[in-house]
Specification:
Blueprint lengths: L2 H15 L21 E3 L5 E3 L17 H4 L3 E4 L8 E3 L4 H6 L8 E5 L9 H11 L8 E5 L9 H25 L8 E6 L1 H17 L5 E5 L22 E5 L20 E5 L19 H24 L6 E4 L3 H5 L12 E3 L4 H10 L9 E5 L10 E9 L3 H6 L2 E11 L8 E2 L5 E3 L4 E8 L6 E9 L17 E2 L1 E8 L5 E6 L5 E2 L4 E4 H5 L3
Parallel strand pairs: 5-6, 5-7, 7-8, 8-9, 9-10, 10-13
Antiparallel strand pairs: 1-2, 3-4, 3-6, 11-12, 11-13, 14-18, 14-21, 15-16, 15-17, 15-19, 19-24, 20-23, 21-22, 22-24
Subcellular location: Secreted
Protein name: Lipase domain-containing protein
Pfam families: Lipase (PF00151)
Length: 524
């Protein structure tokens, strides 16, 4: 599938998906003569070119629609007006003066993406979570509602965010002037999908036109179509703000239904679950629907929207939401990066990432011109936050184990803390694994946080016979595995625990076995 047909497919599916938006606004280029122009100007907002690099890796190219036709609105919320916002406009100074905005801040700017609008529930949830932060009495949250410019065709929406980014830069500058601010360090722009690149355009315009630099931009799965493999001026990059963090959740090719960019483009890039496909988003994650629209939306959009769900949860998380620097996600899963040190930084994903990054930068440990890629695992549903353990499993090489021979199956574990709180059952491997006496396996697992590290572990052996695999046949001996020990190393708690079976006994299929540290001391 070529780029043009893939884009058309994306547009068709997304139009079908978004029937619930309840809007009939559709914008198309004015006439064929538009294509003959190379530049178009929009008053105070400047001129926009259609020449290189705006043609790079793009099957189509448009001028932005006029500000009047898009009718951009900026609903603005504070703790005093959570339900009924004040509506600002980019260059309406009087509205800013009458909005009663507290100059102490902080200021949050939130933008949606293609086919969406400022009315979406996820945006209100994020606004409320930000306003609820302890000490944020003076906070202001501004939504960039560009539904008039986010409609198909996709290439038109891509062009529109260039102008909307500049308009939003004007709004930030006017707030800076009218509130008597000394800088815009206290401004945090959070953008999803196309909204992430819109944030980048705002940050770039602030520097170019007003010599101001945003304090922070958070890109939530920045859109890939028309932005992958482009120069930095075309997309969000780390020069657009003093700190740029990115959460990637759907970074696979468009022809595989991927919508997010895969390149690391921030100071810090988070790749939860590898950054491409998210748990709980499979085609069978919910019951089938007779209407194809919600079914397609769940299958295509679920991975993409996880980015803003993760970020909203990270504002007041149920656990530390730690991600770890590693060479790759595969290396992370293999347990190659388990200690927070100078080679493997640990940074909380989402809202609280800047605090740790600032500490690293102040200590001279990070370079603002370079990138840090971090990996983590999440759960299938809310709350998504999990704590990570490197698990080392040693299969006993004892006489009894060798006599019993190799086994094929899966090891299930349940962690139990000092208050007898149990984690969910967790398989060390997704598929059956062939274990031989003396084998050692390292894996990373993630479980719900119970507030304390484990003190003992319940282990089960899941055995499935396969008619075509003689190694799974057990005609006389019972299906079981001789585990010498299990070691759990916690990233979040920085603790280790090693547990063993009592009296060297095997773990028999479907019979829960308690393993404790004291049983290791009793081993002969």
């Amino acid at each position: 599938m070529n780029g043009t047909s893939a884009t058309l497919m994306l547009q068709t599916i997304m139009v079908l998906m978004d029937r619930q938006n309840g809007t009939d606004v559709t914008n198309f280029p004015g006439s064929f003569s538009d294509d003959m122009e190379l530049e178009r100007c929009y008053g105070n907002y400047g001129c926009f070119s259609k020449a290189y690099p705006w043609t790079e890796n793009r099957p189509d190219n448009y001028f932005p629609l006029s500000p009047e036709s898009m009718a951009i609105r900026y609903p603005t919320f504070t703790r005093r007006n959570r339900k009924t916002p004040v509506f600002l406009q980019a260059d309406n100074i009087e509205r800013i003066r009458n909005a009663n905005i507290d100059p102490r801040g902080p200021f949050y700017i939130i933008s949606h993406g293609f086919l969406e609008g400022g009315h979406k529930p996820w945006m209100q949830e994020m606004v409320n979570a930000l306003l609820n932060i302890e000490g944020n009495d003076a906070a202001t949250a501004i939504v960039v509602d560009w539904i008039g410019g986010s409609q198909p065709p996709y290439g038109q929406a891509v062009a529109n965010i260039r102008l909307i980014g500049v308009m939003t830069a004007h709004l930030v500058h006017n707030l800076y002037v009218e509130l008597g601010l000394s800088n815009v360090d206290n401004f945090h722009f959070i953008g999803h999908s196309l909204g992430a690149h819109l944030a980048g355009y705002c940050g770039h315009a602030l520097q170019k036109k007003f010599n101001l630099k945003l304090g922070r931009i958070t890109g939530l799965d920045p859109a890939a179509p028309h932005f992958s493999k482009t120069v930095t001026i075309v997309r969000l990059d780390r020069s657009d703000a003093k700190y740029v963090d990115v959460i990637h959740t759907n970074a696979i090719p468009l022809y595989m239904s991927g919508l997010g960019i895969s390149e690391p483009i921030g100071h810090v890039d988070f790749f939860p679950n590898g950054g491409s496909l998210q748990p709980g988003c499979g085609s069978n994650s919910r019951s089938p629907s007779a209407d194809i629209t919600p079914t397609v939306m769940r299958m295509l959009g679920c991975h993409h929207v996880r980015s803003h769900e993760y970020f909203t949860e990270s504002i007041a998380p149920s656990c530390p939401f730690i991600a770890m620097q590693c060479e790759s996600y595969e290396a992370f899963l293999a347990g190659n990066c388990t200690t927070c040190d100078l080679k493997h930084f640990c940074i909380p994903m989402g809202y609280h990432s800047y605090s740790m990054y600032k500490r690293l930068h102040t200590a001279g440990l990070v370079d603002t011109n370079s990138n840090i890629a971090l990996y983590s695992m999440t759960g299938n549903n809310k709350p998504f936050c999990r704590v990570h353990y490197e698990v080392t499993l040693k299969v006993s090489n004892s006489t009894a184990s060798r006599t019993h021979g190799p086994e094929s199956g899966r090891v299930s574990i349940t962690l139990v803390d000092r208050n007898n709180n149990k984690s969910e059952h967790k398989y060390i491997d997704d598929e059956q694994k062939f274990y031989k006496p003396g084998d050692v396996e390292n894996k990373m697992i993630a479980v719900k946080d119970k507030g304390h590290p484990p003190v003992f572990v319940i282990v089960e052996w899941k055995y499935e016979t396969n008619l075509f695999n003689p190694m799974t046949w057990r005609l006389i001996k019972s299906p079981s595995i001789y585990i010498e020990y299990l070691k759990f190393s916690s990233i979040e708690y920085n603790t280790d625990i090693t547990v063993c079976p009592k009296q060297n006994k095997p773990v028999v299929a479907n019979l829960p076995t308690i393993m404790k540290t004291k049983y290791c001391k009793l081993r002969k």
